[in-house]
């Protein structure tokens, strides 16, 4: 069994076409067919049903595809890591989620470049979820995200917790209320924008801390029933999860593609949303940002990198982060990647 045979099988399984797989792999169609036949002969198993169009995997082929795909991904990751270990790049490729860019990231990068003039930095806007694959492929060396991830290839540091604020249209009746409660916001349309959701295990554990019942938080019978139903299952959408911790279900929600669109809808008077406090300088002509009284309604900031390969410039980045935190009076616990 050879790697070339396995890659040929994966290409055919993905594309369900010998001709398309041949184009993708750069092989001729006869060469591709020969590799697959050799693989099946070596294994003594038929992997592909060639008598139907489009091509289908046999039951054994589907099982093999599921297992071997993971193995090949790990081989690619190890290969990439080995290459980077033998010849580390002088460039530090940093991934970030947009909300971090509105916070301290620009200040941190400026501090890093000032303290280490030899460091070349590239920045890439990439979601927390996509950062995991980008780290493995070498597209980025480190990522700033808002979510914890359980991945055997990745290590992470919790940098800090950032308080959420509520974003309301300037014309909203609560726009001038300085201390907001989630229960008072439940009658509004909540605009959701996260593309990454909480792990189910996290949602379950936090749901156990619910302070109020759905019936107590919501007055009408229909909405109380809906809240109780939704709270019976883990809620992984981050903003809904914050409300659910207090037994509250918003009256209605709208889901949009990103945070900027969410704030645009708030500015247009189409609803409210919650954002990390670092975003409260955006669209201030149309939006009122007010503090939430709940101290545990926060958005964490994580730093992710590979477990087995830490880019040599990352310690300098951490030093810059902690220096900015100290200047800003931000509480943190100094950590290092292993």
UniProtKB/TrEMBL annotation:
SUPFAM superfamilies: Periplasmic binding protein-like II, Winged helix' DNA-binding domain. Residues 1-58 form the HTH lysR-type domain. The keyword Transcription regulation applies. It comes from the Bacteria. Keywords: DNA-binding, Transcription, Transcription regulation. Signal peptide: none annotated. Transmembrane segments: none annotated. Belongs to the LysR transcriptional regulatory family. This is LysR family transcriptional regulator. The lineage of its organism: Bacteria, Pseudomonadati, Pseudomonadota, Gammaproteobacteria, Moraxellales.
